[in-house]
Amino acid sequence: MTIFNLFRKQRSAPTARERLQVLLAHERSSNGSDLVSLLREEILAVIAKHVQVDSDKVQVKMDRDENVTILEIDVEIPLGAVSQAA
Amino acid sequence: MGKVIVVTSGKGGVGKTTSTAALGAALAQRNERVVVVDFDVGLRNLDLVMGAERRVVYDLINVIQGEAKLSQALIRDKRLETLFLLPASQTRDKDNLTPEGVERVITELKRVFDWVICDSPAGIESGATLAMRHADMAVVVTNPEVSSVRDSDRIIGLLDSKTMKAERGERMEKHLLLTRYDANRAERGDMLKVEDVLEILSIPLIGIIPESMDVLRASNIGAPVTLADARSAPAMAYFDAARRLAGEVLPITIPGEKRGIFGKIFARRAA
Q1: Model pLDDT for residues B195-238, shown as the tens digit of each residue
Q2: Quick one: pLDDT at residue B116?
Q3: In-domain check, residue A70
Q4: Is residue A6 in a domain?
Q5: Which residues does B50 contact at the CB level (< 8 Å), separation at least 6?
Q6: Can you tell me which residues bind ATP (chain B) (predicted)?
Q7: What is the per-residue pLDDT for B107?
Q8: Residues B26/B114, Cβ–Cβ less than 8 Å
């Protein structure tokens, strides 16, 4: 509005509003059941069935925006770690 | 048959007890028969805010366990004849708060009082779910701040699933009471605005209580805000909220907004 606004700190309320809207959209749709942690556990269980995995070598990341959740599972499989044949 | 209201929020420290006392007193100041019930077993405070802490003999748990009659446990307010307090127990385990016992007490209170106002403990555990269980309507106390809004959203979900009304397939009437609101900070963009919180939580607004020294002053002296200074800004906001609870239709005003130049100068000095 005025030149003084340039020197003012950025307003924080719009950020609060956006963060809440994204968070609550996810919390409401999850409806108590935590799909992400369910997927994470089952996916890792499937991998562990076929490969000996060092739990330190597994990275799970999650990112949420308005419309989607991205679940990123990064498993390092060392050479020769294949246990039983699939 | 009286109406049962739960004052709830999820988050602690947002003003549930202050609001229970103020709304209870405001309704009693309209000559309606009111009982305020403290559900915060182990951490009771409604007695203190009401200024009745030295008069507690029996409590809700005593009544539930059959160790005292309801009439023995009810404490009449010294200032308002139609206002009563049913305190929580300070020493007993909260597991003594049984669903059957709570139902019996609430049913009995509804027969005698026009309003039964239940002050919920913070959190989402048994104390909080029991406080809301038999409610006809809910007042969701929220601060314009992210953690409070998130917890209120969670509580709204519980109100729509864990209450008797919800289980019977009826709609729980929910009202937002926005507390500690600072219109100037919201105007500057440093605080969530009324419309932001309303849009996110999407339940109707029953009142906006301004951030004010008068609230602390009232609890210091042990009087509900509406009795401590009926002319103060938060008291007037609570009076309006109580009238809306009683079904009156009043335009919502945002306290402290559109202050003139003198108001601004005064605010600077006070700050």
Answers
A1: 999 999 999 999 999 999 999 999 999 999 999 999 999 999 99
A2: 98
A3: yes
A4: no
A5: B21, B36, B77, B85, B222, B223, B224
A6: 11-18
A7: 97
A8: no
Check residue B218 and give its pLDDT: 95
Least CA distance to B149: which residue of chain A? A20
Q: Give the whole-angstrom CA distance, residue B61 versus residue B42.
A: 11
E-assigned strand segments in chain B: 3-8, 34-38, 75-76, 83-86, 115-119, 137-142, 173-181, 205-210
- Tell whether B192 is within 8 A of chain A (Cβ): yes
In which domain, by residue range, is A64 found? 23-78
Q: Cα–Cα distance between B229 and B236 in angstroms, integer?
A: 9
- ipTM field: 0.76
Contacts of B16 (CB under 8 A, 6+ apart): B7, B8, B9, B119, B120, B122, B141
Q: Domain with A68 in it: what CATH number?
A: 3.30.1070.10
pTM for the whole structure: 0.85
The rounded mean pLDDT for chain B is 93
Q: A70: pLDDT confidence band, cut at 50, 70 and 90?
A: confident
Q: B74: domain range?
A: 3-268
Residue A63 lies in a domain: yes
Q: Domain count of chain A?
A: 1
In this complex, the residue of B157, B188, B192 whose CB is nearest that of residue A16 is B192
Q: Would residue A31 count as lying in a domain?
A: yes
Q: For residues B22 and B24, give the distance between their C-alpha atoms in angstroms, rounded to a whole number.
A: 5
CATH of residue B37? 3.40.50.300
pLDDT in tens, B92-126: 787 889 999 999 999 999 999 999 999 999 999 99
Q: Read off the pLDDT band of B170 (50, 70, 90).
A: very high
Looking up tokens 């007490």 gives: B105
Instruction: Suggest the residue from B124, B153, B159 to mutate for an interface test with chain A (most A CBs closer than 10 A).
Output: B153
B3 annotated binding-site participant: no
Domain tally for chain B? 1
